[in-house]
Write a structure and sequence with these properties.
Blueprint (H helix, E strand, L loop, with lengths): L17 H11 L3 E5 L7 H10 L5 E6 L4 H9 L4 E4 L7 H9 L4 E2 L3
Parallel strand pairs: 1-2, 2-3, 3-4
Helix pairs in contact: 1-2, 2-3
Length: 110
């Protein structure tokens, strides 16, 4: 998993689609949600919109391998705290998650 090597983070759940992600966030109350854009049943942008408008309290970081401006804009409009491009090499997830919990909106897209 993407966060297995982050010693200062605890994974409290994994979801295989957007509907399951929404349900899981309600049950486990995470601080941060890493949300993929492309998922079955409900895409990550709509799942993000539902989580943020429901006031679940979790900060959503949207991640994808697709460097597409519409995805970035859609994620931010949906209430995402940040947008991450999955790129080869190690990403400092704890710093990125810390930024979003501090209320800093950002993107790794260049």
């Amino acid at each position: 998993m993407i966060l297995d090597h982050e010693s200062d983070m605890l994974v409290v759940g994994e979801a295989s689609d957007g509907l399951q992600a929404i349900s899981m966030v309600g049950a486990v109350k995470p601080d941060v949600v890493l949300m993929d854009i492309r998922m079955p049943n409900l895409d990550g942008i709509e799942a993000t919109r539902r989580l943020t408008t429901a006031g679940q309290g979790a900060h959503v970081l949207v991640l994808t391998t697709f460097d597409d401006e519409e995805y970035v804009l859609g994620a931010i409009r949906a209430g995402a705290a940040g947008f991450l491009l999955r790129t080869p090499g190690r990403t400092c997830w704890s710093v990125r998650c810390g930024r979003c919990t501090a209320g800093i909106r950002w993107s790794t897209r260049r």
